[in-house]
Amino acid sequence: TAVFVSLPVPGARATPGSIFCTERYLKVSVPPFLFEAILFAPIDDTNSTAKIENGNIFFTLYKKEPAMWDSLTLENVDKEKLQYLRENAVLKAHEKAKEEREAKKVTKEEHKKYALEATMKLEEAERKRIEDLKEKERQKVTEELELWKNQQKEADKYKSIQKEQELHQEIGQIKEKKNEKMNKTRIPNEGISKTKHKPSKGHGSCSMFSQNLKEEQLPAPRSAATIKVNFTPRAFPTALRESRIAEEEEWLHKQAEARRTVSADLSELEDLKEEEKNPDWLKDKGNKMFAMGNYLAAVNAYNLAVRLNNRLPLLYLNRAACHLKLRNLHKAIEDSSKALELLTPPVPDNENARVKAYVRRGTAFCQLELYTEGLQDYEAALKIDPKNKDIEKDAEKIRHLIQGTIQGS
After folding, report:
1. What is the CA radius of gyration of the chain?
2. Which among 253, 251, 312, 307 is positioned nearest to 277, based on CA atoms?
3. Of 370, 288, 290, nearest to 324 (Cα)?
4. Whether residue 7 has pLDDT greater than 70
5. In the CATH hierarchy, which fold is given to the domain comprising 2-74?
6. Going by C-beta distance under 8 Å and a sequence separation of 6 or more, which residues neighbour residue 322?
7. Residue 188: pLDDT above 80?
8. Dist. CA 354–CA 350, nearest whole Å
9. How far apart are CA 228 and CA 242, in angstroms?
10. For residues 364 and 350, what is the distance between their CA atoms, to the nearest angstrom?
11. What CATH superfamily is the domain 278-407?
């Protein structure tokens, strides 16, 4: 019923992948060794086994039909038949492997389909459970809402009844007061008629009495007056509901203090001309000198204006621009920082000035090769004016410089 084969493989490592077996063909390929046999009769390749241990391969080949074999392999067979049997065995093995793959694929698809159906059933049951819960909650809320509406209706009815009762009481009180007033007015009139003379039964006497009674019943007219409304002017263009009142008031307070310091500084500069004592005039003169390229003269004009009024941020801002041109980078940083200090609180009116201050200080930092500090100032300017393409391009250049410096180091 079975054939037992022991195949020694000295010095080589055999694996299950080295063995190929079909009904009539057995092959073991373990380089540098090769064993090949066309079996004497068909075997049951499904139940047959191979065991690898201690450099040997032990085969247990179960015969399809119990019988005695004359030899393990076919003998006296020409090469063509051997080649045919070999190719046929390989072809059958491929077909069998293909069938097994197809069977596995079909089984896998069936399992997948079953799992999908089971998942859909679970999801459907869960969905139905959730919908039932929602429906119960909806009914519960509807009942509570109806109960609340009924309670509100009853409360409104009760309030309306109370209001009607109070109104009736007030009307009754008003009628009583009116009757009392009528009685009070009638009693003195009767006494007067008895002492003086009896009124005639004419139309004039009745109208006079009714007119006096009406005058006593009507209240006096209200006095007229005129209310004057004064509107204080707003120094900021933004709407009041959108503005930050506390910060604006602080800004205006600082501007007022800056103007008050002018009169105190003028007393120290008695020898100046009248026009030279005006910081605005000096600022305009400095701007003209800057436009002409005379940066030293512009700095002198701004210095004198700062002595007259050291609370104007534009003076420091313009002087910082002059220092940049003259390569006085540390002074440019100092003036830009002073301008930013004076440009507080941040309000819409000083946005442009703050952007210039950040850019000029950032430029000075970059020229001192302090690129990180310069990039921070450019990013602060972009937060105020995010649509400024020039500042955005310069910030991108600084980022590339920083990256190149890091890579170089």
Report:
1. 56
2. 307
3. 290
4. yes
5. Immunoglobulin-like (2.60.40)
6. 286, 290, 295, 298, 299, 302
7. no
8. 6
9. 27
10. 21
11. Tetratricopeptide repeat domain (1.25.40.10)
